[in-house]
Amino acid sequence: MTSQIPTKFIPKNILLIKLRHHGDILLITPTINALRQHYPQANIDVLLYKETRPILESHPAISQLLMIDRNWKNESCWQKICHEAELVSTVRAYHYDLVINLADQWRSAVITGLSGAMVRIGFAFKKRDNMLWRWCHNQLVTTDKHHQLHTVEQNMSALTPLGFSIKNAKTSMHFSMADRQKVKSILELQQIKNSFIVVQPTSRWLFKCWDDEKFAQLIDILSNDGYTIMLTSSSEKKEMAMVAKIKSLCHSQNIISLAGQLSLPQLAALIDFSQLFIGVDSAPMHIAAALGTPCLALFGPTKLQQWWPWGDNNKIIWAGHYAPLPLPDSIDTKTNQRYLSSIPVVDVVNAARSFLHE
User: Fold this and answer.
1) pLDDT tens digit string along 187-227?
2) SS3 of residue 80 by DSSP
3) How many domains are there within the chain?
4) Pick from 183, 198, 176, 236: which is nearest to 56 by CA?
């Protein structure tokens, strides 16, 4: 049952929970920023998956990160129980006044319910409409309009019981001076003195990717315009192989591959130095948008309303403007089909040049 939040409720210890991928974690930063603005003296912690830590590890508003290791699932049943019990014990030991569960998993809900926090906020997901979910959260926020909202706005709506507005939300990406210096050293080593463009053609899912041949054509054209192209990707073998293939298809020599060589904060520093970021629907795209770097994003059958790059310095080219696309929920994420193939090179070139010539 929903309880009344005291009028002068000022939490001292706050925990946010989000158990998703890197891009999802970056899109909770407006929520973190709003909490810091309203509660400047509070300790703000975040519970997240261990591999997504680089997104938030340098955020100045966060006191500490609590982590769940996905590798726990590979351990024995008893070991998994011990990990979960220890996590709940840790959460309770921090005496949180406010826990905000931005996830839809039962795991996050149970941790919220057992936290001991006076105010426990969650979303009223229709698939979770039962007594246990309501017991875990004493403040439930409607999701009726979530399909009309960007993910940033969805996350921010969790703050409405506290009287916060979801307007003027801004994402943020932070990196250390060491990360900045690492990238600066790479640029000096490569003798990059002119303007450069970061191109990250990869995604964890192939159906979100454009054709390798078209990326190569785009890179050659922009390189011939006088720009150095920095190709990047994660350290996943399939992504590095895609970048290697694209580079092999290019005729220009003004291309440098840093595929698999940078951490996410280092990639953020590289993007921050760059004049333009070009990529697909992925975490690096959200990083570019958060940094305010001009961002050109290619989209296919994704829920565009929820996942477009948040901010004012972005342009989107959607494959649905050129050919029919399947519904996002119908996609087999393991497919090798590239639904962005209908996007012509010339339109991407023109969009990139419109940024570069501003």
Assistant:
1) 999 998 778 999 999 999 999 999 999 999 999 999 999 99
2) helix
3) 2
4) 176
Range of the structural domain that residue 294 is part of: 177-356
Calculate ∠ Cα 292-293-298, nearest 5°: 110
At what angle are helices 106-114 and 77-93 packed, to 10 degrees? 40
Question: Last residue of some domain: 131, 162, 193?
Answer: 162
Query: Are 182 and 234 part of one and the same domain?
Result: yes
Give the tens place of pLDDT for each residue, 90-147: 999 999 999 999 999 999 999 999 999 999 999 999 999 999 999 999 999 999 999 9
User: Under 8 Å CB-to-CB from 13, ≥6 apart: which residues?
Assistant: 42, 43, 45, 94, 95, 96, 97, 98
Q: Quote the pTM value.
A: 0.95
- Domain stop point among 162, 190, 213: 162
Residue 308 has a CB neighbour count (10 Å cut-off) of: 20
Q: What is the dihedral of CA 249, 342, 354, 168, to 10 degrees?
A: -120
**How many CA atoms does the CB half-sphere of 111 hold within 13 Å?**
33
Give strand pairing partners of 122. Answer: 140
Residue pair 311/181 in contact (Cβ under 8 Å)? The answer is no
CATH number for position 257: 3.40.50.2000
What's the number of CA atoms in the CB half-sphere (13 Å) around residue 82?
6
Same domain (yes/no): 158, 304: no
